[in-house]
Amino acid sequence: MAHTYTQLLYHIVFSSKGRKPWLRDKLQQRLHRYLGGAIRGEGGTAILVGGVEDHVHIFALLRPDKALSD
C-alpha cells in the first residue's frame, strides 16, 4: 500500500497599502494574533508571525488539501 507524505511550508509577506507605517505596537500584536488564529482556523499551523510597521511576514505549515488563496 502506498503512503504519501506532504509538508507544505509557506513564507507569506504582505504590506500595508502604500507601505504606510501604521502597524504599530498594540495593533501589530493584535494583527499577528489574528493572523495566527486565521491560519489555525483553516487547519494550518502558524510557526511564526511577525513584521514591522509597514509589512507582515508569516511562516506557516498549511494542509495539502487547502489552497493558499483560501
How would you summarize what this structure contains?
This protein has 70 residues and is of the alpha+beta class. The termini are far apart. The radius of gyration is 14 Å and the shape is elongated.
Keywords:
single chain, 70 residues, alpha+beta, three-stranded antiparallel sheet, 1 helix, 34% strand
Structure in words:
This protein has 70 residues and is α+β, with helices and mostly antiparallel strands. Helices cover 24% and strands 34% of the residues. It contains 1 helix and 3 strands; from the N terminus they run E-H-E-E. It has one helix at 25-41; strands at residues 8-15, 45-52, 55-62. It has a 3-stranded antiparallel β-sheet with strand order 1-3-2, covered by helices on one side. The longest helix is centred in the middle third of the chain and has 17 residues, at 25-41. It is elongated, with a radius of gyration of 14 Å. The N and C termini lie far apart (31 Å). 7% of the residues are buried.
Describe the secondary-structure layout.
Elements: E1 8-15, H1 25-41, E2 45-52, E3 55-62
Antiparallel strand pairs: 1-3, 2-3
Regions with pLDDT < 50 over 5+ consecutive residues?
none
- What percentage of residues falls in helices of 4 or more residues? 10-25%
Estimate what percentage of residues fall within beta strands: 25-35%
Number of extended strands: 3
The ordered H/E elements are EHEE
Number of helices: 1
The largest sheet, given as strand count, sense and whether it forms a barrel, is: 3 strands, antiparallel
How large, in whole angstroms, is the Cα Rg? 14 Å
* Strand arrangement in the largest pleated sheet: 1-3-2
Alpha carbon gap, first and last residue:
31 Å
* Mean pLDDT metric: 91
User: Given the C-alpha coordinates, what overall shape results?
Assistant: elongated
The secondary-structure class comes to: alpha+beta
